[in-house]
Specification:
This protein has 277 residues and is mostly helical. It has helices spanning 5-21, 40-49, 51-60, 64-75, 85-96, 103-115, 119-132, 149-156, 160-165, 172-179, 182-194, 200-209, 215-221, 223-235, 239-252, 257-272. Helices cover 66% and strands 0% of the residues.
Length: 277
Amino acid sequence: MLKTPSDAAVAGCLSLLLEVSGNPKAGNVDREHDFDDLKFEHFLASAAGAFPAFLEVAEKRIIGEGVLRAVKESMRWHRAENVHFGAFLLLVPLISSWDAGGMVDIAEAARNRLRRTDFRDSLSVLEAFRLSNARVVEAGELNLKDRKTEEEIAQKKINLYEWMKIAPEENLIARELVDGFKISIEGAKFLLSFGNSGKAVVELYYHLLSKFPDPLVIAKMGREYAEKITEWAEKARTEEERKELDEKLLKDGANPGTIADLTASSIFLALAEGWRI
């Protein structure tokens, strides 16, 4: 269990550090693979840099402003874009509910806090998105990339929970926020059942990759390709097979970044439940 706000902030940072340190994680940055614009060290700097924001979230229970603070604080320590926006969006509500109890209680408390947000939380998340220049699934309504979205949110006073409810079905992060972090709970249970092996995080990543088509891959390469990745991930059991899959996805430019974000939120809930690496 998490005993103090500081524990919650450390668990948030550790979740991000453990996620990026897992290797090999097919199609994503890890200890052996960088992208042209994103390096392993960027993720380390972003995770460590987010600590003051995570601590403030745990103490003040802020959500929209907490996401914005996490983006701003982390960007003080690196010069990359789009490092942890999706992960921050998942972790901040969980960190804000750190003392609710076990992982299921934390997830439910986080959803309830999201329900009680207001339109200013939505505007803060929108600002955080623009600062980080993150990649997202295109939405037909209240699109993050549409400059009119800010005006509509303010006029209609749309809170963060209601905004996430109208996101496209394939947007797994929005679904997590609305549905009570079901995937993250599943991931945490997987970690707890797997034990404290150093391979646990990599196994979690492939478990999630084999079950959920990544929305960023869908947006870039289509649903059929994203569904093929789930099949390939299910079959890739050995380290060599996973390295081959990693090389294929990197060559194709397929980056399952949302699965990496969900890996981080799963780790946080497992840590809250007492799991340790």
